[in-house]
């Protein structure tokens, strides 16, 4: 894909803020996703869990588009 060359734009997987992991999932990324879900929830007055799940699915698809292999993308896609 054309976006693969930008895969390290926010840092390499497992380094920097991405190195803090729980069950091999980046804690900071997950907390920021939850915070974004909360902010969206304040605006839309919708179900926080549904918003969080939608954002996580979007995150998986975005990581896949940028060819970034994460624990969650490995669950849904196989990388070579």
Automatic annotation (TrEMBL):
**What is the protein's given name?**
Uncharacterized protein
Keyword Membrane assigned to the entry: answer is yes
What's in the keyword line of the UniProt record? Membrane, Transmembrane, Transmembrane helix
Q: Where are the transmembrane segments?
A: 20-40, 46-66
């Amino acid at each position: 894909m054309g976006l693969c060359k930008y895969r390290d734009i926010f840092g390499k997987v497992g380094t920097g803020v991405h190195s803090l992991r729980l069950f091999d999932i980046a804690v900071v990324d997950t907390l920021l996703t939850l915070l974004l879900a909360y902010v969206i929830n304040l605006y839309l007055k919708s179900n926080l869990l549904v918003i969080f799940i939608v954002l996580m699915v979007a995150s998986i698809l975005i990581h896949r588009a940028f060819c970034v292999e994460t624990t969650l993308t490995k669950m849904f896609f196989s990388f070579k």
